[in-house]
Amino acid sequence: MPESGLGEIQTLAMLAPLVLGQAANLGAATAFAHMDPPTPWVTWALTLWNVSLNQNLLHPATAPVVRNIEQLVISWLAPYFGMQGGHMTPGCTVANLTALWAARENAGVTEVIASEGAHLSIAKAAHLLGLRYRTIASERTGAMIAEALEGDLSRTVLVLTAGTTSGGRLDPLTLAGRAGWTHIDAAWAGPLRLSARHGDRLAGLERADSVAVSAHKWLFQPKESAFVLFRDVASAHAAVSFGGGAYLATPNIGVLGSHGAAATLLLATLLACGGTGSPAGLTGVWKWPSGWRSSLRRMRTWNCWPDRRRAS
Ligand SMILES: Cc1ncc(COP(=O)(O)O)c(C=O)c1O
């Protein structure tokens, strides 16, 4: 650490060759398997807004607009997955943990069953939550063999993967509903649900109790951006909420405490792409929820952007 500061300009000049010059080129076609997409430039602008405003979504007083933006974005996306609602998380590791946490609280489950191709975050979540973890017979590619799922599953969370990490395979999603709780880890393939052409590949997903999707994969968001959705969002959120009262006027939902406004970047991307295009090739296949324009107008705090001149 330098004794005294270098000043901003010199700092940027010093860091540019390192941070910009030696970064991995994840936008290259050969980097597809890394799942980290090129990001639409509108999200670069929104990132600057976010870091300069530094809103904290923990509490309405510290994020009067962007909490509502998150709810709006979730309300647009949840119906594609047959879910009622949910919240954003920094990735699907946390989304999966949150879903299994809700399952443990609300469905009294004691074990997690997944395919051999399931992401390590499922085993990690089971471990953290004190749930037994078991994989069942899977194809050579890692996808679950439907016939291998048998016995009493009433105290089991069945985790089905939509897009396995190594092979992009789909577990048989029509198994959703066979266990005490079904969670679909759709970190990778989830955004296919927004495609009029490919959405049916994930048929069955709508019968799950919870779904996790990484927006920083096929929704082209900068990290960190993901969401967890629930079929019964009121009871799931109640199960994973703490606090309220003296410290917080509203309960703290989910794993995170203080967190930033990833949803504004997602909103900007969805608005900028419109119904006919997307930044990286889903052109023309996104269906749009009806009434999106009026739901934006209805947002109570939409006109409450802080007047920074008056504040200073
Ligand atoms: C299927 C699957 N689930 C979960 C995750 C974890 O997501 P994240 O890295 O966003 O925490 C990944 C990451 O690649 C994944 O492929």
Summarize the structure.
With 312 residues, this protein is α/β, with parallel strands linked by helices. The chain has helices at residues 8-19, 41-53, 66-77, 92-107, 120-129, 215-218, 233-239, 262-273, 292-298, 308-311, and strands at 85-89, 111-115, 132-136, 156-161, 181-185, 210-214, 226-230, 241-242, 252-253.
| Tally of discrete structural domains | 1
**SS-based structural class?**
alpha/beta
CATH class value: Alpha Beta
The CATH homologous superfamily is termed: Type I PLP-dependent aspartate aminotransferase-like (Major domain)
Rg calculated over all Cα atoms:
21 Å
Strand content is 5-15%
Low-confidence stretches: 276-289, 300-312
Mean pLDDT: 88
General description of the model:
This protein is of the alpha/beta class. It has a single domain (41-294), classed as Aspartate Aminotransferase, domain 2. The protein is built from 10 helices and 9 strands. It has helices spanning 8-19, 41-53, 66-77, 92-107, 120-129, 215-218, 233-239, 262-273, 292-298, 308-311; strands at residues 85-89, 111-115, 132-136, 156-161, 181-185, 210-214, 226-230, 241-242, 252-253. A 7-stranded mixed sheet has the order 1-7-6-5-4-2-3, sandwiched between helices. β2 (111-115), α5 and β3 (132-136) form a beta-alpha-beta unit. α3 packs across α8 and α4 crosses α7 (233-239). It starts with 7 loop residues before the first helix and ends with a helix. Residues 35, 91-93, 119, 121, 161, 163, 165, 185, 187-188, 214, 226 line the site of pyridoxal-5'-phosphate.
